[in-house]
Write a structure and sequence with these properties.
Helix content is 41%, strand content 23%. By secondary structure, it is an alpha+beta fold. Strands 2-1-5-4-3-8-9 form a seven-stranded mixed sheet. The protein has a two-stranded antiparallel sheet with strand order 6-7. Strand 6 and strand 7 form a beta hairpin. It is globular.
């Protein structure tokens, strides 16, 4: 039992350091499967496999975060303007703040109000959030965005917190990846 706990602690520390903002572009995203708002299981591997030539904007958010709402709005706007962007939203439940039923009701309300017409993935127990360094201990750091290239299957950029200039960051990143292909 002690060995398992120690392994989990070491695994968490390593994964947290891997997904720091300066350590991307050569990191492969950790595979996961989560249930969606449509009660379907969605895996990151399948999302990548069936969406080649795209950049996945994997964003972690909570239902009570006002900056998360701004980030979602910015990403949805960018995705409408650029078909290369595929938003994948992961709602992280904080068990101390809301029950599962309150959480799912909040997600339904967010989907309706923000006119999100695709599945939101539900991290009901913060397991994926913990691995990606979004949840450490009892604190949750959101919004947290991972930009993943579906062709290389690598994380290109990690952004923690709301970024007003997200479109400019993406354009610069897009230009860099375009130049690297030549």
């Amino acid at each position: 039992m002690k060995a398992i706990v120690l392994s989990l602690i070491i695994f968490t520390l390593i994964s947290t350091s891997l997904f720091g903002e300066n350590n991307s572009s050569s990191i492969t995203p950790h595979p996961f499967t989560l249930v969606s708002t449509q009660r379907k299981y969605k895996s990151l591997r399948k999302i990548i496999k069936f969406n080649k030539n795209k950049k996945i904007f994997l964003i972690f958010f909570t239902t009570t975060c006002k900056y998360c709402k701004k980030e979602r709005e910015a990403i949805l706007k960018m995705a409408k303007e650029n078909t290369e962007i595929l938003p994948v939203f992961i709602a992280v439940r904080n068990p101390k703040d809301e029950t599962i039923s309150e959480f799912t009701e909040s997600i339904k309300k967010i989907s309706k109000e923000e006119k999100i017409n695709f599945d939101i993935l539900l991290d009901l127990y913060s397991a994926v959030a913990k691995f990606y360094g979004v949840k450490e201990g009892t604190s949750i750091t959101v919004p947290k965005l991972f930009i993943i290239d579906t062709n290389t299957e690598k994380i290109l950029k990690v952004i923690t917190g709301y970024e007003k200039e997200l479109d400019k960051i993406y354009k610069n990143l897009f230009e860099k990846t375009k130049m690297n292909k030549k």
